[in-house]
Amino acid sequence: MHDILSSQVLRPKERQRLVKLIGDEFLGSNLSQKVDIITNRGKNTGVSNSYCNDSRLELSSTLQLLDSEANSSKGDLTVFGKSDMPQYRDPKNLRDFLYEFNQDPVLKTTCHDMDSDDLEVINDYCGIKSYNLEAHYKLIVSNYNSLTARYRSKGVNRNVLGLISAYLGIQNSKTRWSEENIEMNWRTKGMVEWAKNHPNFPPHANSSLIESRRREGFRIVKPIVIEKQNRIIRDFRELVIYFKHMFHIRQDNSLCSLLARVNNTYKSEIKIDLSEVASNLELFTYVDAIKQVYVKILNMIVEASKQQEGAMMPEVIVSSLVTSDGKNVILSVNHVNSVYGKPIENTVNRLGKDYTSLILKQINGLCDFYLEADFGSSHYAKVNVWNGKKRTSQTVSKRLGVEHILVFPN
Fold this sequence. Notes:
This protein is an alpha+beta fold. 42% of the residues lie in helices and 16% in strands. The protein has helices at residues 2-6, 12-22, 31-39, 49-71, 91-103, 116-126, 133-150, 158-168, 189-197, 207-213, 236-245, 255-263, 287-306, 344-349, 353-363; strands at residues 219-226, 231-235, 248-249, 271-276, 283-284, 315-322, 328-336, 368-374, 380-386, 393-395, 401-409. A hairpin with a 4-residue loop joins β1 and β2. α3 packs across α4. It is elongated and about 75 Å long.
């Protein structure tokens, strides 16, 4: 590693890539220490002082970026040597971040179509009389940067931040976003040019504004096909609503419909009852991650059933509930008439690869996670699998089944 870093053959960009790869080794040291650690390794290699000085500048710049990324995602850092699990991230921070994004008078125009009132608000904020997309966009970037700065140390999911930044076109106007790899965003060249030729009119005007002005918003040249939702996005207004649905569960984007689409792929493997899932729940969350968690739980149920000789098709009851104080939304996936495959003590002490992967990749920072089950031999218990507290078990009354419980802040 010493020789590689000090090599005069190594180009600056290559050194930066290398530094990123080994950056975790230096997390915890301050910036000056990190630069010294690297550049001091080249002292006795015959490398010129000017070369080392240039290296320090490049390393300093790169390490500042690493520090920024680390500080904005402290919840992602694993305490190696003590645990193979990440630091707990409070899901309330994600909920609050998304809620504030939705309530901000400027940012909410990126996840709602615009009417005449919205137009007045944006013009007032921009200090202009006629709507201008460039002025509007500068305001969007400013408010978004302020919002993310307030949440930088709270461990909000980096996938969420990256997705929103790509949709807004903040980092790179050609960065794709969502599972559909959509390239269209707020900085797409075609729309920017359209705005110059269509002044005083937003690209995502709602139907009333379109009707009153007798104008149309920006139409996408090549419509975007969302196959999993049997949906086609033809204009920018529809794209804005699609983006909104990625973070806001409500009646027109219900949890029940989301789960039903997933269930279509399990028709031959699981009998699933969604009748107890409310269609009018409202929740700010990362919707794609909920779908991913649900898929993994269903896969675990399929695999668990295969381990039981002569087992019939597994039956699952999915239900939702808003707690009496209104502070949480609970989603339950209950594999009825089943027994959990591990003793209570083993479940508390060793989660296993499936739960560990679920926590690392989806659940941490999204929701809290509990398991309530029949553990066999007349042992029935509830385990706080992931809620920021020491994992323990609590005896519960007799039950038949294995229930996965996801708790979201409301």
